[in-house]
Recover the amino acids of this structure.
């Protein structure tokens, strides 16, 4: 479990960096890692589970739909290099914010789109970002992505971490389930 509401301090040879975290759910967590993993200012992206009522759930438990968890990613970032608002913009561009019942071929509560906020400032930023997207007219349907307080985040099993690097063929099959086409149609 990680602490969502505390900044991580690290020391390198030059200066201390105060990292912050963002937690986003947008369908299968495998497909949420790569878009953030290469962003300048993002230190790491961890696949995991949050929002449920069982401590340290397994993938099988979460997939059974009995734990209340949502697959999500916890993004550790340097706010001096990338802002939370910028991460929100990336988030909107890799999810379908009009589908509350899952994302693309992944259906069910454990795949629902959610922005989990770690502070009042993150909550306010997420709400404003959602309002801007709705007002933009980019989508014909309402923006239904939830904005909820962060709960304990449990990293997924190791074989889920950086899945796009470990099993690129299977990852490509997941991406072919509608996400890439949706992104191209709405954002390119």
């Amino acid at each position: 479990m990680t602490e969502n509401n505390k900044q991580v301090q690290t020391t390198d040879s030059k200066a201390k960096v105060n990292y912050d975290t963002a937690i986003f759910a947008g369908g299968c967590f495998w497909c949420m890692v790569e878009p953030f993993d290469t962003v300048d200012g993002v230190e790491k992206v961890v696949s995991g589970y949050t929002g449920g009522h069982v401590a340290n759930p397994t993938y099988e438990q979460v997939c059974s739909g009995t734990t209340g968890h949502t697959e999500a990613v916890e993004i550790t970032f340097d706010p001096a290099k990338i802002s939370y608002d910028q991460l929100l913009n990336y988030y909107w561009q890799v999810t379908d914010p009009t589908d509350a019942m899952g994302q693309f071929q992944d259906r069910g509560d454990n795949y629902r789109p959610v922005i989990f906020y770690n502070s009042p400032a993150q909550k306010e930023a997420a709400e404003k970002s959602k309002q801007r997207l709705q007002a933009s007219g980019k989508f014909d349907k309402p923006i239904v992505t939830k904005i909820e307080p962060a709960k304990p985040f449990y990293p997924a099993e190791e074989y889920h971490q950086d899945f796009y690097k470990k099993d690129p063929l299977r990852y490509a099959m997941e991406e072919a389930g509608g996400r890439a086409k949706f992104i191209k149609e709405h954002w390119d």
